């Protein structure tokens, strides 16, 4: 170990804390049976993220000064980060790996092979290679590949999420539960981090390398990894994959009608809405377009067309509007009732979806509506009490 000793400073402590958390989430996610493919890809991402911060975790403790032979140890393989993050998003939504998945991982395996070979070189050759070849030529190429990969894959994952959300509202009443907004925020954070990373790389290419200035960047990687682990674990058992929505007519009468004349969609929609309201199917928290179509004895294509064309809204707005109406009626009768209890009783899956649906339906927040309901009750009680008070005064 020579004249160098290890020091356990605050930088090492912070990075190590993040690494331990990422590893814990990786182990937990790898044991999940639901969304198995997605959860294992997320576990792999967390392992790679831990590896990316490891050289700085041990480096700030003086490990590379104490053991120079650790140079090129294949801890950090950041070329895996971008495809694994995209693969997790894709598998979460589609329930399977992206097409030609092995090719997505090829740059990461190339980096792993290069690092392993360089690590096994004789010590003097290794150190000369690091100074003459790796530093000036190879590392910059890898860094550019990491930056381009993170930008391209993060943007592709965000586009995939947007397309997924656009279809959710036409099929599910609890679409907000599956919108994965947490994943969108993390992907956006990864893009922002990448921009700062690119700025750092450009600055140090001009001004020189300062090891300690990269602490903030690796803290950001660790924080993103922990946040992704927390949210991924929270949603590990939620089945995100949608079934295909049938858009064709399924019976001869509908087919003849579609060829001869456009059906009276407002009348059909009014019939469907009335039957749905009367039967109380809207109370089911996980009510979906296929399930409601079965209840109504029709197909998803006809039901979706009736709601979209006849009512001018999507499936989620239609069902949550019925739920909001039920909450409003309950508040009129019981203005002191708890809002969240009423929301869950009427089928809402979350407070956010309840507030959004109620505001869209009535143009005011549920709490404000309840205050107005209480005022109406108080005014009504006063009107009934006023004649008695006048008689008592007389």
TrEMBL record:
<feature type="transmembrane region" description="Helical">
    <location>
        <begin position="41"/>
        <end position="64"/>
    </location>
</feature>
<feature type="transmembrane region" description="Helical">
    <location>
        <begin position="70"/>
        <end position="91"/>
    </location>
</feature>
<feature type="domain" description="HTH araC/xylS-type">
    <location>
        <begin position="284"/>
        <end position="372"/>
    </location>
</feature>
<feature type="transmembrane region" description="Helical">
    <location>
        <begin position="182"/>
        <end position="200"/>
    </location>
</feature>
<keyword id="KW-0804">Transcription</keyword>
<protein>
    <submittedName>
        <fullName>AraC-like DNA-binding protein</fullName>
    </submittedName>
</protein>
<keyword id="KW-0472">Membrane</keyword>
<dbReference type="InterPro" id="IPR018062">
    <property type="entry name" value="HTH_AraC-typ_CS"/>
</dbReference>
<dbReference type="GO" id="GO:0003700">
    <property type="term" value="F:DNA-binding transcription factor activity"/>
</dbReference>
<feature type="transmembrane region" description="Helical">
    <location>
        <begin position="103"/>
        <end position="121"/>
    </location>
</feature>
<keyword id="KW-1133">Transmembrane helix</keyword>
<feature type="transmembrane region" description="Helical">
    <location>
        <begin position="12"/>
        <end position="29"/>
    </location>
</feature>
<dbReference type="InterPro" id="IPR009057">
    <property type="entry name" value="Homeodomain-like_sf"/>
</dbReference>
<feature type="transmembrane region" description="Helical">
    <location>
        <begin position="212"/>
        <end position="233"/>
    </location>
</feature>
<keyword id="KW-0238">DNA-binding</keyword>
<dbReference type="GO" id="GO:0043565">
    <property type="term" value="F:sequence-specific DNA binding"/>
</dbReference>
<keyword id="KW-0805">Transcription regulation</keyword>
<dbReference type="InterPro" id="IPR018060">
    <property type="entry name" value="HTH_AraC"/>
</dbReference>
<keyword id="KW-0812">Transmembrane</keyword>
<feature type="region of interest" description="Disordered">
    <location>
        <begin position="373"/>
        <end position="394"/>
    </location>
</feature>
<feature type="transmembrane region" description="Helical">
    <location>
        <begin position="141"/>
        <end position="161"/>
    </location>
</feature>
<dbReference type="Pfam" id="PF12833">
    <property type="entry name" value="HTH_18"/>
</dbReference>
């Amino acid at each position: 170990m020579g004249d160098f000793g290890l020091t356990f400073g605050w930088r090492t402590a912070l990075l190590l804390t993040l690494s331990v958390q990422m590893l814990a989430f990786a182990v937990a996610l790898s044991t999940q049976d639901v969304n198995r493919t997605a959860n294992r890809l997320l576990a792999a991402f967390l392992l790679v993220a831990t590896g990316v911060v490891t050289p700085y975790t041990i480096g700030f403790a003086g490990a590379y000064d104490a053991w120079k032979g650790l140079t090129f140890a294949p801890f950090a393989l950041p070329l895996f980060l971008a495809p694994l993050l995209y693969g997790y998003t894709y598998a979460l939504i589609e329930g399977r790996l992206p097409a030609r998945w092995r090719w997505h991982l090829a740059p990461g395996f190339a980096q792993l092979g290069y690092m392993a070979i360089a690590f096994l070189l004789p010590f003097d050759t290794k150190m000369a290679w690091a100074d003459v070849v790796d530093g000036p030529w190879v590392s910059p190429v890898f860094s550019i590949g990491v930056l381009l990969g993170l930008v391209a894959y993060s943007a592709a994952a965000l586009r995939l999420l947007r397309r997924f959300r656009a279809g959710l509202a036409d099929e599910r009443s609890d679409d907000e539960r599956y919108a994965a907004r947490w994943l969108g925020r993390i992907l956006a954070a990864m893009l922002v981090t990448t921009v700062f990373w690119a700025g750092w790389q450009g600055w140090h290419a001009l001004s020189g390398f300062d090891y300690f200035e990269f602490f903030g960047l690796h803290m950001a990687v660790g924080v993103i990894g922990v946040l992704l682990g927390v949210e991924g674990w929270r949603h590990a058992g939620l089945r995100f994959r949608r079934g295909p929505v049938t858009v064709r007519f399924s019976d001869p009468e509908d087919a003849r009608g579609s060829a001869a004349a456009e059906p009276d969609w407002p009348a059909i929609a009014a019939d469907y809405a009335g039957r749905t309201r009367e039967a109380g199917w809207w109370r089911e928290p996980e009510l979906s377009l296929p399930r409601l179509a079965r209840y109504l004895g029709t197909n998803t294509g006809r039901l979706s067309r009736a709601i979209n064309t006849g009512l001018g809204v999507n499936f989620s707005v239609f069902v949550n509007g019925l739920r909001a109406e039920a909450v409003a009626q309950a508040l009129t009768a019981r203005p002191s009732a708890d809002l969240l209890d009423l929301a869950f009783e009427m089928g809402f899956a979350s407070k956010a979806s309840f507030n959004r649906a109620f505001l869209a339906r009535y143009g005011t927040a549920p709490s404000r509506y309840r205050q107005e309901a209480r005022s109406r009750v108080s005014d009504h009680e006063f009107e009934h009490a006023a004649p008695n008070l006048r008689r008592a005064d007389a």
